[in-house]
Design brief:
single chain, 2 domains, two-stranded antiparallel ribbon, 4 strands
Length: about 500
C-alpha cells in the first residue's frame, strides 16, 4: 500500500501533506492550551489559523515567512508552553518560551532541511568563526547549570533559546543568497521601523496605549525627573530603553541607505522613515541609546561621505559641526530631553555603580562558570556588598550587558561572546572598505555604526543578548552579506 502511494504522489506532495498534518495538530493542541489563557491568545490563534490557510496560496512561501518573521522582530509576543514564574524573583526566562519569530521560521527551516536532504547541490555552510564560539557558549552554559538554583526545566528552556538563536543565525546566513533577498530584508526592517514609530508617536500623542496589547504593546512609563515626571514610550518592544536600543540600529541602517548609490526617487521615503525613527528614539528618552545613536550616526555619515567624495578631514569637520548644532538645538527645545540628561533622576544613575559592584563581586566568586544561566537575580542578595543594599531597592540584573554575561556564564563565556562581536565587526570593516558593490558596503557601514551604538548603550543597559532574537538575526544577515561579497570577488 505504501509503495503504491509513493508511486502516485511525489515526494514534494507527501512532504506538504505531512506539514499540513503537523500544523493541524499544532493548532488543535494550541486551541486546548489557550482556552485557559488570556483572551489575546485566542485572537492571535484565530488570526494565525486564517493566515495559515491563506499561506498555502502564496507562491514563494519560504521567503514570505522569512520577511514576515523579520517584520515581527519588534513584537514582544511570546507564548509559553508552560510557565513557572516566581513573584519574588525577576528572571528573563520563566517557562518554555516560543516567540512569534520562532513560530514563523519553523516552516522555512524545515523546508531548508528537506532541500539539504534531497538536493546534492544544496550545501550548508557552518561559518566556524561564529558557530564554534557560539556552541562553546552553549556548552559552557550547560556545564554552569550544575551550580544554578534555577529549576531544571527552566534551565533547559533557557538553553533551548540559545540553541534556537544559533539555528536562526545558520539559516539566515545560508539562505540570503542574492542581492534582491538581502535588499528586501532591509526594506522590511525599515518598514517595521516606520510601523513601530507610528505606534510610538500615537502613544505619545494620546498619553496611553493604542490597543495593540495582543502584539505586546507596553504601557506608558512615567519616570521621576526633577520636580515632575517624563513620560516614556515603549511601543511593542517593551521597556523604553530596549525600544530605543532596538530602533537605534534601524536608524543607522536607514541613514546609510541615503548615502548609497540608489535611485533618487527612492530617497524620499527614506528621509521620512529616518525622521520617524529618530523621533521615536527621542520619545523613549534613553540617554545611552540617544548618545550611542549620535556617535554611530556621526561615524557612519563621515565614512559614507568620505567613500563618495574622498574628503576625509572636511567631512569630519562638517559632521562634527552638524552633530553639535543638532545636539544643542534638541536639548534647548525639548525640555524632557534636557531633563533626562541634566536633571535630577532621583538616584536612578546612582544605582548603576552599586549594581556593577555587586556583579563584580559575583564574578570574583565565580570567575569560570558564573552562577548559572538565567540565575543572576536568584542569587543577587547573597553577593550584595553595596552600601545602599541595591539588591533590595532594585532587584534587577546589572545594567551592563558584559558584566551580566560574565556573572551568569563566567569570564570564558564572555570571551566567546566578545570574539563573535570582534569577528562580526572585522567583517563589517572589510565590507565597508570594498569598492565593488553599490549598496552592500554602505549597509555594512550602517551595521558597524549600529554595533558601536549598541556597545555604548549596553554599557549602561542590559538586554540578555544570548536570548535576544534580533541580535542573532542581524548577525546572520551580516554573514550572508559577507558570503555574497566573497562569492563575487
Amino acid at each position: 500500500m505504501i509503495k503504491c502511494l509513493l508511486m502516485v504522489y511525489n515526494r514534494q506532495l507527501i512532504f506538504e501533506i505531512i506539514i499540513i498534518f503537523l500544523v493541524g495538530t499544532f493548532v488543535t493542541a494550541s486551541l486546548i492550551k489557550v482556552s485557559t489563557m488570556d483572551e489575546k491568545w485566542v485572537k492571535i490563534l484565530i488570526l494565525g489559523s486564517v493566515g495559515i490557510a491563506g499561506f498555502f496560496l502564496i507562491p514563494e512561501k519560504e521567503k514570505f515567512l522569512l520577511y514576515f518573521a523579520t517584520f515581527c522582530l519588534a513584537f514582544d509576543l511570546d507564548f509559553n508552553l508552560y510557565y513557572r514564574g516566581n513573584p519574588y524573583i525577576v528572571r528573563p526566562i520563566n517557562g518554555f518560551r516560543i516567540t512569534i519569530v520562532d513560530f514563523l521560521l519553523i516552516f522555512p527551516v524545515v523546508m531548508w532541511c528537506y532541500r539539504i536532504a534531497n538536493d546534492s547541490y544544496e550545501k550548508i555552510y557552518f561559518y566556524p568563526w561564529i558557530s564554534i564560539p557560539f556552541l562553546l557558549i552553549f556548552a559552557w552554559s550547560f556545564v554552569g547549570l550544575s551550580i544554578s538554583t534555577v529549576p531544571e526545566d527552566i534551565s533547559i528552556a533557557a538553553l533551548w533559546i540559545i540553541g534556537k538563536n544559533w539555528i536562526i543565525f545558520i539559516y539566515l546566513a545560508n539562505n540570503l543568497k542574492d542581492r534582491k533577498t538581502i535588499y528586501t530584508v532591509f526594506c522590511v526592517l525599515l518598514l517595521m521601523g516606520v510601523f513601530q514609530s507610528l505606534v510610538c508617536i500615537a502613544q505619545s500623542a494620546t498619553g496611553g496605549t493604542v490597543g495593540l496589547g495582543m502584539l505586546g504593546e507596553a504601557e506608558i512609563f512615567d519616570m521621576a525627573a526633577d520636580t515632575g515626571t517624563v513620560s516614556r514610550i515603549g511601543g511593542t518592544v517593551g521597556h523604553p530603553n530596549k525600544l530605543a536600543g532596538f530602533m537605534a540600529v534601524l536608524m543607522q541602517l536607514n541613514l546609510v541607505f541615503l548615502y548609497a548609490y540608489i535611485p533618487k526617487h527612492a530617497r524620499y521615503p527614506l528621509f521620512i522613515s529616518c525622521a520617524l525613527i529618530t523621533i521615536t528614539i527621542v520619545l523613549a528618552y534613553s540617554r545611552g541609546a540617544i548618545a550611542g545613536m549620535m556617535m554611530g550616526g556621526a561615524f557612519s555619515s563621515w565614512w559614507c561621505l568620505s567613500k563618495r567624495n574622498g574628503h576625509i578631514f572636511i567631512n569630519a569637520l562638517m559632521v562634527i559641526s552638524i552633530i553639535v548644532v543638532v545636539s544643542v538645538t534638541s536639548l534647548a527645545l525639548i525640555e524632557p530631553l534636557r531633563t533626562r540628561f541634566f536633571g535630577d533622576d532621583h538616584g536612578s544613575a546612582d544605582l548603576r555603580p552599586e549594581m556593577r559592584l555587586v556583579a563584580n563581586n559575583i564574578i570574583r566568586h565565580h570567575p569560570w562558570f558564573g552562577v548559572g544561566l538565567n540565575n543572576y537575580t536568584s542569587v543577587l542578595r547573597r553577593y550584595d556588598i553595596s552600601k545602599m543594599a541595591v539588591s533590595l531597592e532594585f532587584p534587577k540584573p546589572v545594567h551592563t550587558e558584559f558584566l551580566l554575561i560574565a556573572a551568569e556564564i563566567g569570564i570564558p563565556g564572555l570571551c566567546f561572546f566578545i570574539f563573535i562581536l570582534f569577528v562580526t565587526l572585522f567583517n563589517l570593516v572589510l565590507m565597508g572598505l570594498s569598492q565593488t558593490e553599490p549598496v552592500i558596503p554602505f549597509l555594512a557601514i550602517g551595521f558597524l555604526s549600529a554595533w558601536m551604538g549598541w556597545l555604548f548603550h549596553h554599557y549602561y543597559e542590559y538586554d540578555y543578548a544570548l536570548f535576544s532574537n534580533y541580535i542573532w538575526h542581524y548577525i546572520g544577515i551580516i554573514q550572508a552579506m559577507k558570503r555574497l561579497m566573497t562569492k563575487q570577488s
